[in-house]
Amino acid sequence: MHQEKVCPNCDKWTSTSSSLCSYCGKELFEKERLTREALDAQPDPFKMPLIKIYSKDGYLIVFGKRIIQFVQLVFFGIISLLIWIASLLPG
Description:
- By secondary structure, the protein is mainly α.
- The protein has 2 domains: about 5-40, no CATH class; about 45-90, no CATH class.
- Helices cover about 45% and strands about 5% of the residues.
- It has helices at about 30-40, 60-90; strands at about 5, 15.
- Strand 1 and strand 2 form a beta hairpin.
- The chain is elongated, with a radius of gyration of 25 Å.
- The mean pLDDT is about 90.
């Protein structure tokens, strides 16, 4: 099936088999690409902000950071449990 799209620059119908307009050379899907890039740039709201461990960190620093990560996970777990209990109480 042959699909076409109107070029946002020259307003002529062109094939979508290429990402560029066959008449003026303008990018056909620029708006979609910019929207996708903006969505990809947003931070993940479900990713937990744990302390970062870098490859240049020494063994003692890594050990200390692992302990801090464990404390962070326990803290997030306790908070999640309290939120879960608080959501059960009204119902």
